Amino acid sequence: MNILLRMFSFKRIYGDGTEIYIKSKDIKLDIQELMTITNRDYEYLHPDKDTNFCFIKFSTAARAAEIYDILKQRDDLLIRIAYVRRNG
Question: Can you tell which superkingdom this protein's organism belongs to (predicted)?
Answer without folding.
Answer: Eukaryota
